[in-house]
Amino acid sequence: MNAQQLKQLLNDVKDGRLAIEDAMAELKKLPFEDMGFAHLDTHRELRNGYPEVIYCAGKTTDQVAAIVKRMLELDYSNILATRANSDVARALQALTPNVEYSTTARIAVINRKPLPQPAGTIAVVTGGTSDMPVAEEAAITAEIMGNNVKRIYDVGVAGLHRLLSHLDEIMSANVVIAVAGMEGALASVVGGLVDKPVIAVPTSVGYGANFHGLAALLSMLNSCASGVAVVNIDNGFGAGYMASMINHM
Question: Which of 2, 97, 133, 183 is the most exposed place for a label (fewest CB within 10 A)?
């Protein structure tokens, strides 16, 4: 239940269209709904501005489908399922026709009521093409949350002229998400060029001494550029969500 639905519920009670007992039954679902295998947080949109997002890894296809089915029954407009495989996507497409699935980002989106976009832009910048799966997770997350996203991919520090050729676009964004593996130097370079928040996303892309993204994570945490904040390894969703919050302030 979102704020608009809650207002409608209260107005229905006030105008006599809904009995108090029926309203109480609806309000009992507000904190969460016990589905047996999951507790669906039906209160999150009221608290945080966006409903609960489904993390599919570790869940069965049937569990994800049951959660989405209930969210659709509760009239959720925008549903986001991250780390979803093709089996999950097919199960969701059987529930509703308007499912968009990105094989690159492994994200399934049900966007029945697109949110209004603020004037600002979020720039998603990657060091290499190999960082695209994490970058797309960030970009799609930001888009479904009502943001204009500019993608600037494969502009890493191994060819710095590529990054500099897009400098005007990057500097004009309200927030920059810098996605990079290997040594993760992109975030420091971007942070030294712009006067906007930079959200650094280390990826697990790299050779053995990269330690599955740990080297990039430590490099970004030790950035000498001011204004750089870091999310966890491969956490494109977290970066997209945070960038959306900043862009909507």
Answer: 97
pLDDT tens digit string along 171-217? 999 999 999 999 889 999 999 999 999 999 999 998 999 999 999 99
**DSSP 8-state assignment for residue 130:** G
Residue 55 · residue 82 · CB < 8 Å: yes
Looking at residue 15, its amino acid is D
Q: Class assignment of domain 121-247?
A: alpha beta
User: In 86-203, where does DSSP find H-type helix?
Assistant: 86-95, 132-144, 160-164, 167-171, 186-191
> Domain limits of the chain?
31-111, 121-247
CA neighbor of 214 nearest in space, from 198, 233, 187: 233
Query: What single-letter amino acid sits at 88?
Result: V
CB atoms within 10 A of CB 130: 17
Instruction: Please name the residue that has the structure tokens 């030790």.
Output: 222
